[in-house]
Design a protein that fits this description.
With 280 residues, the chain is an alpha/beta fold. It is 39% helix and 15% strand. The chain has one domain: NADP-dependent oxidoreductase domain (TIM Barrel, Alpha-Beta Barrel), CATH 3.20.20.
């Protein structure tokens, strides 16, 4: 479990990944995006997560460059993630997609590259491309996103390199306990996208009660719940005060009883697509 904003988890290949980062899903290119990335780094974040389908890799790259310049940091001080989209799954097309992401970001390498969705019969060839990039030292770690247990078992049956990360929808309405347990058994780090259920949980009465109890915001309660489950998380915000607030998680701890109360909110409810029925 991470103990401060710049603390890391160690992936099974030895790569150290920050336990908290900035997500930029649905953040359009432009000044707000650049400023959000810059602000996150200024306030101590060391991880930024994007994807080719988000259409904002250039803005993320510009934000990174400004933050590095202004803060005297080096590229290796940051952990940058992107993902290959469904249309590019395949060996050669995935390699080309990686180069395109690097060009847009203005970077020489990525710290983590993920297959975005487990599109049937396509992700194995894409994984072979990720293995090539990894074995050539062009990416520090490789993984998947939105893979369920059966997808992981299928991939593991042919993989030469085990995925280091699985980024999935994870929040108190979708706790995915079997997947979390399987991931820990396999040494695959689970990472949460949409940890706040795209804002739908911010008025939940149980979470509001816990927020009042601990003197924290509902968002902080949820993100602390992630941290105590050992799940890497990447909350999204373009507002500087929210970026700061989302990182203020390390001066309190949820009791075991309250962790279980939050676990009990599970309804297997998604705000994103079902990975078993998302093939485009």
């Amino acid at each position: 479990m991470i103990r401060h904003l710049q603390d890391t988890v160690t992936l099974h290949n030895g790569t150290r990944m920050p336990g908290l980062g900035l997500g930029v899903f649905k953040v359009e290119e432009g000044a707000a995006l650049v400023q959000a990335v810059r602000s996150a780094v200024v306030h101590g974040y060391r991880s930024v997560d994007t994807a080719s389908i988000y259409g904002n890799e250039r803005g993320v790259g510009e934000g990174i460059r400004r933050a590095l310049l202004e803060n005297g940091l080096r590229r290796e001080n940051l952990f940058v993630t992107s993902k290959v989209w469904n249309a590019d799954l395949g060996y050669e097309s995935t390699l080309a997609a990686y180069e395109d992401s690097l060009e847009k970001l203005g970077l020489d390498y990525l710290d983590l590259y993920l297959i975005h969705w487990p599109v049937t019969e396509k992700y194995k060839e894409a994984w072979r491309a990720l293995e090539t990039l990894y074995q050539e030292g062009r990416v520090k770690a490789i993984g998947v996103s939105n893979f369920q247990i059966h997808h992981l078992e299928d991939l593991l049956s042919v993989a030469r390199v085990k995925p280091m990360v699985n980024q999935v929808e994870f929040h108190p309405r979708l706790t995915q306990k079997p997947l979390l347990r399987f991931s820990k058994e396999q040494g695959i780090q689970l990472e949460a996208w949409s940890p706040l259920m795209q804002g739908e949980l911010l008025e939940h009465p149980t979470l509001s009660e816990l927020a009042a109890k601990y003197g924290k915001s509902v968002a902080q309660i949820i993100l602390r719940w992630d941290v105590q489950h050992g799940v890497v998380t990447i909350p999204k915000s373009t507002k500087e005060h929210r970026i700061v607030e989302n990182a203020a998680l390390f001066d309190f701890a949820l009791s075991e009883e309250d962790m279980q109360r939050i676990d009990g909110l599970n309804q297997d409810l998604r705000v994103g697509p079902d990975p078993d029925n998302f093939d485009f």
